[in-house]
Each structure stands twice: as structure tokens, then as C-alpha cells.
Amino acid sequence: MLEASDQNAPIPITILSGFLGAGKTSLLNHILHGDHGLRVGVLVNDFGEINIDAELIAGVSGNSVSLSNGCVCCSIRDDLVESTLQLVQGPDRPEYLILETSGVADPVSVSLTFVESELKSLIDVDSILTVVDAENIRNLDNEYEELAEDQISMADIVILNKVDLTNQATLDELKSWVHKIVPNARIIETTHGRVPLELILGIGQFEPERVFRKMSFDIHVHAESGHDHHQ
Which domains does the chain have, with CATH numbers? Predict the structure, then answer.
């Protein structure tokens, strides 16, 4: 449920993953323009790509853009921890955070940044959302398909975007594929990244244990691979 966080409580954060072109930016714009009444802080690699409406911009300072509705966008640049600290310790402390990861980012390592760093007492990971291009996700090269499966495997919610560009049979097949990768994830179908915010923010579905299990599995697989390579 979306509600303002206590000033002394950790700030909830939603981690947004998905390939370039899947629709993450459309979803972010939907959130920034949403009528939720929260001061939302958005961490992005390049806020120039979000195409924020000029009339919404209240001010620009360093690597952040303040909006008239109280939201703020901050560019991560090279240091996620430092950028997050700058945002949460600023004069206008956000009540909710959203991190847009790069198209090739691994949600496991990103979420561990908030679970194991100095941010642990300041930030509470709410959920991991993975946006999927329903039209093109199954047409990726093998290398990228594996990365897409990794992104989906850690999702609490999978957002199937661009469902208007495909047919029902393809959608049914896609949903079956997603549930084979991550059986317990909720799937939301949408177009243009428009999702009711109460379905994706403040849902409290992140499970650190899943992240640690995935990390341990990856280490084991890589170790086995290295062992086989030396045989």
C-alpha cells in the first residue's frame, strides 16, 4: 500500500529492471506524473532519457532535477551508494525511492547494494519489478536471453509491456515461460507502461533470502564451470 514513510524509518525502494526498450522509462514517467501524493525519488543512469515535461521541472541542481509535484530525479553517475545517500540525506527527503537499472544490470548485485552496504539502515527494498517487451522478448540472441531470464528470475512482479503488439496465443505462451522461470511472481499486462501504482509500489514482496540463494547458486555454477574447464 502506498503511504508516506515515517521520517525515521527506512525509505522503501523499488528496483526496476528490464532490457533497453522494454518500457522502463514509460513506467517511470507514469509514476512521476501519477497522482500519488508522495515525494518520490528516482535514481536513473541518465535523467535526460526520461524526457520530463518542462512544465513539471521546478529546479535543477548538480545531478538532480526537482519536479513541481515534489518528486526528484537523480543521476547515479558512477556511484550508486553515494548518489542514494545524497538523495536521502538532502533537505527534501523522499518518501519513496525507485531505481531504474541499466538494461544489462543484474538485479541480484543491485539489490545486495541496499542489503549489505551502509544503506542497509536507511533503505528498505520493497520489491523488484522486471519490465518485459511482450513482442520481442523471445526473439533475443542466446546471450541476451540468458540475461533476460536472470532479470525475470529475481522479479517479484513481471510487467508484460506492449501487449497490444502481440496476440493472445503468444501472450499465453509468454506467461507460461515466465512462470517456469519464476513461479511465484505476479504478472501484470499493460501497454505504454501504464500500471495502477497501488499494484507495484509499497507491496513489500522483496525476500532477501531469494537473493542470497540466487547468489550462492551462481557462485556454485561458476565454480563448477571453472572446474569443468580445467578438466
Answer: 11-221 (3.40.50.300)
| pTM more than 0.90 | no
Burial of 2 (0-12, 13-18, 19+ CB in 10 A): middle
How many residues make up the chain in this entry?
231
Closest CA to 180 of 127, 138, 228, 121: 138
Cell of 98: 525507485
DSSP 94-131: -SEEEEE--TT--HHHHHHHHHHSTTTTTEEEEEEEEE
Give me the percent of the chain exceeding a pLDDT of 90.
44
Give bridge partners of residue 67 from the DSSP assignment.
57
HSE (side-chain half, CA atoms, 13 Å) at 71: 24
